[in-house]
Predict the structure.
Amino acid sequence: MQFDLDSGLHILRRTPRTLDALLRDLPDNWARVTEGPDTWSAYDVVGHLIHGDETDWIPRARMILDYGTSKPFEPFDRFAQFEASRGKSLDQLLGEFAAVRARSLAELAEMKITPELLNKEGGHPEFGVVTMSQLLSTWVVHDLDHLAQVSRVLAKAYGDAVGPWRAYLRVLK
């Protein structure tokens, strides 16, 4: 499927509600469960999504519009959520994510991205030249990737408890 901004917005709008429905009011043993050392919990993922909306997707889209390839994006700190989320509850992060995502989508709407602007290029610090379309489609897939991650992490918490049914549960493989 080719990227279509209107179609992609359907996912970007739903991500906060999806996470809220799955995670709100979960006890900490669920919110903080991980797959092991150096892996992320649902709590960590929500913090990461907040940081991405604040410092990655919209700022990079603005960079493409304002500078094209003449000024590369700032590198993204994939671990900034650990400090930024400190002392907050998962429910607080879910509320914060909903608010920051609403602001991000409002800013994106203000940019009035046309089909021509989807072809505009920017400079990624690692990948080199990328297009607005690639950036925005990556935002959509990034959300879906982390939704799958949250589901997988939660499922693996009961990975041993399911006994022989493990053979039928792809999420545990």
